[in-house]
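Hey, quick one: can you model this chain's 3D structure?
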Amino acid sequence: MIPEAPVHIAEIDFPQLYAEVFGSLDSSTKFYETIRSLPDSKKDAKIVFHQAGRMVWLADKIDEVARGRPAFQILFYLIAAELVAKIAAGYEGEGQSRSHVQKFFTEICSSESKQRLSRAFRHAGGVHLSLTSAVDLLYDVRCDVVHRGLYYTFSLQRSGSSMPMLSNVHEYSPIAEISLLELRQIVLEGAALAAKRIAEIGE
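Sure thing. Here's the predicted structure for all 203 residues.
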């Protein structure tokens, strides 16, 4: 189950939000204090950590009013992925959203996360989508919400369920074998990794 979120975005408890990524609340709190004390030359690490956290927090809140509509959460997870990748790369231009989302998942995320995503979706015949194809699928879901207001056809496993879900995206229907909670964790972990790299903090 996605943790209960605070009432207002200004009240986010960032150590609590990232606790599972760091293995404990204590480790998360220590990292957060390190991030907060960074000099201005490393401010991008703070921005990545805070802004990605805010996007995931907003996704958590959406579950309260649109439960079972994971396209909304995916929209916010991919906003987080895009902003992290662009800040990490020092990109200040316009556009290139899909390519930066790809960079987040294929270059910033851990090898474990990449492996999980490469087994997240499969065709009815049993062949899994590659990592880049899985990310493209998620980006297509994001585009369906942003460009068409289409948020109700895509499905993912709920927390605690092992049952594959048929997920409609445009003209194809991949079978999802990943949960919304797993995807949430991958995004938070990737944001933390990016913050560490920008701040030059050891893994």
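One thing worth noting: The beta strands are 121-122, 165-166, 175-176.
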